[in-house]
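Reopening: Thioredoxin-related transmembrane protein 2 still failing for me.
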Amino acid sequence: MEVATATEASAPAASGGAARQNHPFPWLNAAISEPYYFLHLLAFFSYFAARSAALSADDGGELHDRLLRREIQAVLVFLVLFVVKIVKEETWETFLADSLLYAKGLLLAVTLIIDYWLTLGYFLGFVVIYAVAQQPPYDGLGHSSHLTPLQLESLLTEEPTSRFWLVEFRTSFSATCIQASSVLPELSNIYSNKNISFGIIDLGHFPNAAAKFGISMWDHLPTYILFDKATEVARFPEVTSESKVFVPKVTKKLLCQHFDLDRRLIEYLST
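Support: Ran it again with your exact input. Result attached.
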């Protein structure tokens, strides 16, 4: 059965996520096992070697004072941005991406005190990291399932086990999709019931499905579509002229309001 296949397909990812969550130091495990974090960690720690080499070659001691002042300023700025982001951001993936961006910018500003060529080297190094490594998406599924387009079609038409399906269409190469990758699984933990189910389709694996659902592969990803059986009843972002100019950041609150999930849950519980 297609439903069984979808469940089985999601099992490895779910078990992998559970294994990482059960690790005594999950952040350390991710920093070592994920190339994206590991390469950034190497780049940041290499600064201490570059700093020591520069100070050992400084005879007058002027570099030490200027560098120390710039480092203190950079740390204070980073701490302020860190606190602001940790309060405002809803997903851990977005928080990490923004924090790394700020840290890289401040590192480049500090290295300008040492040597312009060192700054250029770090800049090129970060470009290489961006090219060869990718921030890992959220690996939990909650009560959602990874689906293929055929499985979704079967669930909507041949086996309508749920009246509503909220489906996220995303790609693994989109930074926006990666930073929003925990939103749907977390919503599924709250709102999943016999009346509404949640699914995820990776358009990177099924690019032909994008045109079928009216989705552009190059902008407005991720796209969320709510199906009532086989009929689309709502989507985010909506296909309008305004949505092509500005798309608000995906959050649990935004999707909950857009698809009226609270009302649908209340209606289900009251029946």
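The mean pLDDT is 84. If you still see a failure, please send the error message rather than a screenshot.
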